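pipeline/complex-builder :: batch 7 item 3
reading input block
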Amino acid sequence: MSHWMDPVKEIDPDVFDLIQKEEDRQRDSIRLIASENYASKAVMQATASVFTNKYAEGYPGKRYYLGQEFVDKLENLAIDRAKDIFGAEHANVQPYSGSPANLEMYYALCEPGDTILGMGLPHGGHLTHGWKVNFSGRFFDAHQYSVKKETERIDLEEVRRLALEKRPKVLVCGASAYPRFIPFDELKSIADEAGAYLVADIAHISGLVAAGLHPSPVPMADVVTSTTHKTLRGPRGGLILCKKKHKKAIDRAVFPACQGGPHLNAVAALCVALKEAAQPDFLTYQKNVLANANAMAERFLELGYRLVTGGTDNHLLLLDLTDKDVEGKVAAVAMEKANIVSNANSVPYDTRGPFNPSGIRIGTPAVTTRGMGTSEMKQIADWIHACINVREDDAKLSAIKNEVVEMCRSFGTPW
Ligand SMILES: *Cc1c(COP(=O)(O)O)cnc(C)c1O
């Protein structure tokens, strides 16, 4: 049977074999990792286009090498689409991914050693928001805010206290494991009061923001960074949006400060993804992402689980297993044996410690792309509950896996 990767098969059967196995895995499993999705075939094909062969250091009209006629049109198209969909004054579409986008944002707004303030990793923040083992924790005087113990929502009083005490150059908000809306308005007034730039990292939620289903930070933030491959459902890559006054600094920070030539194949695929994101189907998709996260949250509550913050406003939920006799990792490994793929995650004020967390993070972007709806979400929650209960019984986990595979296959393949 012919396969769209046949040229790979001819040259490198080992890699072809792994591609095929990964395709099977993505088809036959329930993928609940909140940062993952299925890019469309159009996005994947643009990623595989001849733009991968081109060097284009610089920006449209200002390149170092020749042969940029189509590249310049492509990058301008991506910039215009990004500005349009997010209502931004400026867009830079060259960042290689979300972490480089944040590096570039700091480079543009700070000097080495400056003070920054971001949300702590154990509370849902990202490594690049000032965590110790990351460049952002090493090259800056990084301070971290938390969520409130009682509400598990961002502790705005603490943010304000730290901002006024430490006077950060940059106040970073946005998260990787926070199930509620980010209060951009309140954070903006704190940043203003403290004389800090406000940066919003919308890596996880950019698809919801693009669809207007999560409040947008674009009107008030100095700089907005994002990945392009999470809820936005594009190729792997990064994006920086900013106010006009930061355009020069941001563009210089991306090139020549932190990167060389842009990955134009990813820029081409981002262009396609942004076009997809402007279609009515995309709004329906993002609405379904939210409906699915809600349906799953409801079912978990019925089954007696505790959810961090008690529910969700976005595409993810955090199951708190603290009061169950099972650790997050053990639960996630049992689920994987039944082809339900998620990740163990810290919950706020975790009693088990960062290497053995008490939570499971569950996201609905990928399963929603496959067309699964609220009845499947209830079924998935029931399967997860069953996996946790029979976690030591491989035969029972394998029986669940058979049901999971059958359900997954009934939704076909997304490519
Ligand atoms: C995923 C993520 C990033 C990093 O993106 P990579 O593409 O993995 O480098 C940055 N910030 C947040 C909030 C994220 O969730």
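note: The mean pLDDT is 97.
queue -> next item
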